[in-house]
Amino acid sequence: MVMPDTVYGAALLSLIDFFLSMVMISGIGVVLALFPLLNRLGRVDEAALRKSSH
Amino acid sequence: MQEQLVSFLSALMDQTGLAHFWWGNLVMIAIGCVMIYLAVAKRYEPLLLVGIGFSCIISNVPGSDLIQPGGLFNYAYQGVALLIVPPLIFFGVGAMTDFAPMIANPKLVILGAAAHLGIFVALIGAKLLGFTLNEAGAIGIIGGADGPMAIFVTMKLAPHLLPQISVAAYSYMALMPLIQPPVMKLLTTREERLIRMKQSRQVTRLEKIAFPIVIGVIVNLFFPPVAPLITMLMLGNLFREVLVVDRLAKTAANDLMNVIIICLTVAIGSTMSADSFLTVDTLLIVGLGLVAFVFGTASGVIGAKVMNLFLAEKINPLLGSAGIASVPIAARVSHIVALREDKENYLIYHAMGPNLAGVFGTAISGGIMLALLGVK
């Protein structure tokens, strides 16, 4: 979809972009809200990682 | 003999830059000097302004080979034009940044989008002022307050506006501590500014390692046009968080970043020749950039107030303005404005959440814009 090069096109582009940005960033928020579940998989030994740092 | 001498001197004159020097060059050299003065005397963004100021001066000395094809400044500009420099900046930023505040408080992530209304106000404003839609899109992205993203989108939409847009974006980022507080105070009551945030949860190493991988996949899946930037941001962050490649993380965050900053500043300054910079369009773009920052700040604060209508535990609306991407300047402004009301209200950690989300918000807005304009 290509927007018409007019003020109407600019307004339409802004409206769609703002709305989709809100939806997508909310989606990222939802994914991040699930992150604590990762900790059920186990834990990372930070001390061991630091020891083997290159 | 006299004729020969005049002819010889005339030919010599033509080979120097003097014959092509006009008052516009003098103005731009003065602007370059002011930039260096601000960097040295006032400490305004010295890492950026010294290089930009110097190359601006040199690019306005007619005849300088450095900005001609084959010249070193021109090669630096090719790094920007070929979109190599902006992703590398994000790579370094990723290696410097702890995303834990964003992971710990996902509900504040929405402020990263709310604070971007300024992009669209500037976009429509630019169109009303007669710019093409592609140019208006590039001008609007100044409101994202994200230098590399502004450069990236501009190079895709309107490369001829790079000097104006990059200078406006970086200048306003430096001026955010002056631009944002009046807007924030105007839109909040003292009671709202006094709201204290609950301490965030601890983010584990596993979450920190998973974050760049998950976001890297999401961004490449949904936003291919801007994926190079965010992917490199995430690679830098992965180097930082895995803890086993400290050398690489430190190189990305320090040495490489410094080299890239030199290239970027020289490239931007070298495009600021009087012929292309001293135009009415430049004034319009600078004005629209200010409008974008003011509206972005306002929409972020209003977004936080709207969230408070639905939240049992209220958030401090000053966090909203941090949703403008400029990391960490916008977060610091929220923190300082809150501290002025209550000396023990430390908002910096909480403000970093929306601030980091703002980077993604700008990238998402830019990606959608490029897709809607049919640019890959």
- The general outline of chain A is elongated
Rg of chain A, Å, rounded: 21 Å
Give the helix/strand class of chain B: mainly alpha
Poorly predicted residue ranges of chain A: none
The averaged pLDDT of chain A comes out at 90
Strand coverage percent of chain A: under 5%
Quote the average pLDDT of chain B.
92
Oligomer: heterodimer
**Total helix count of chain A?**
2
Number of strands of chain A: 0
Written account of the structure:
- The complex is a heterodimer of chains A (54) and B (376).
- By secondary structure, chain A is mostly helical.
- Chain A has helices at 7-33, 46-51.
- Chain B has 21 helices and no strands.
- Chain B has helices spanning 2-15, 23-41, 46-59, 72-81, 85-96, 100-104, 111-114, 117-128, 133-140, 147-157, 162-174, 176-186, 190-193, 205-222, 227-241, 246-253, 255-270, 274-277, 280-310, 329-341, 348-372.
- Chains A and B meet through helix 1 and helix 2 of A and helix 7, helix 8, helix 9, helix 14 and helix 21 of B.
List the helices and strands and how they pair.
The complex is a heterodimer of chains A (54) and B (376).
Chain A: H1 7-33, H2 46-51
Chain B: H1 2-15, H2 23-41, H3 46-59, H4 72-81, H5 85-96, H6 100-104, H7 111-114, H8 117-128, H9 133-140, H10 147-157, H11 162-174, H12 176-186, H13 190-193, H14 205-222, H15 227-241, H16 246-253, H17 255-270, H18 274-277, H19 280-310, H20 329-341, H21 348-372
Quick structural summary:
The complex is a heterodimer of chains A (54) and B (376). With 54 residues, chain A is mainly alpha-helical. Chain A has helices spanning 7-33, 46-51.
Please give a handful of descriptors for the protein shown.
heterodimer, A: 54 residues, 61% helix, 0% strand, B: 376 residues, mainly alpha, 21 helices, 71% helix
